[in-house]
Every structure is written in C-alpha cells, then in structure tokens.
C-alpha cells in the first residue's frame, strides 16, 4: 500500500508546515509498522512542473483520445489514482497555498483518468484513496478565508476521495502567542487523525 506525500512546503526544512507533516509521517509509520506501506514524497518546490497551456492541453487530449494513459505527462495523475492515503502539506499563502500546488492538482485533474462522467453527466472519481489529510500553518488567523483547504476538499470530491482531514497551526507570527503550544495542539490533532485512519 502507498501513502503519497505531496510536499508543497516551499521554504523547505525551515517550514513549520513541514514540521507538522514529518510528525504525521512518523506517527503514521509507527501506527502502520505491521503493515506493508510505502511512502512516496513529491517535493513540489524541486519539481519542474508548469501550468497547462494550449499546446500541452492539446497534447494531453491527444494522448487520452488515443488511450495512451502511459504517457509521461500523465504520470502524476496515475500516481495519485494509485495512492491509498494522501497527505498534502502546504503553507498558507495569499489566502490559499503556493502556486506549485495548484499546478500539481491541474496536472492530476484529467477527465477520463482521475475522474469520468456518467451518461447523466455526473462526475465519478477514480482515485483509490479513502482519506486525504491537508496540513497548513499560518502567521495569522485563517478564519473564513480557508480557500486552500476548501479547494482541495472540492478536488477530492471530484476525484472520489471520500473523506478529508484538516490540520492547521495558526497565528504563529503574532507577538505574545504561545507558538510551542499552538504547534503541540496541531500535533495532538494529527494523533487523533492517525488513530481514525
């Protein structure tokens, strides 16, 4: 079985979001130590992925029309379909997440592969994963402007991923806030998620 970790923590090892993701992965490995799990990490900050343009979109459409789902440009879509659990770590940037994550999800969103349409025009997701966990951190409060997680939750519905979990550590840059306590509460929530899945 496979856990896919989509690492959109662009600041790398300095990222507090990445700290929470590592906590999640360590707890997951401990909880599943008697099972056969492989963890695959995609470090989006070091991947050369680009937004679709007219040329690449036409190429993708041609591959799908020809049944060439083994084409290299469809590899990210095939990978997310095959994952049994998914973890996304993305810092809270500009009310959502880093642009690399949007590009990644665009590359994964392929009609006829990650989702199909029924004869009635209803989308039917093709991903195997039952759960996706989304982890983020922010310097201020997120509040109602949780557009990053809301978008990912919508994509999960399209892809057929039945349940999503959200973990955030917020207000980390506000003077006077107890940052270690905020991070500890987020890690406690991670512990609860691991127990549930």
TrEMBL record:
Please indicate which superkingdom the organism of origin belongs to.
Bacteria
- Per the record, a Pfam family? Flavodoxin_2
For this UniProt entry, which segments traverse the membrane?
Answer: none
Q: Which InterPro entries match?
A: Flavodoxin_fold (IPR003680), Flavoprotein-like_sf (IPR029039), FMN-dep_NADH:Q_OxRdtase_AzoR1 (IPR050104)
- Looking at the record, the residues that make up the Flavodoxin-like fold domain are 1-190
Identify the PANTHER family for this entry: FMN-DEPENDENT NADH-AZOREDUCTASE 1 (PTHR43741), FMN-DEPENDENT NADH:QUINONE OXIDOREDUCTASE (PTHR43741:SF4)
Under what name is this protein listed? NAD(P)H-dependent oxidoreductase
- Organism of origin: Candidatus Fimisoma avicola
Taxonomy-wise, where does this protein's organism fall, top ranks first?
Bacteria, Bacillati, Bacillota, Clostridia, Eubacteriales
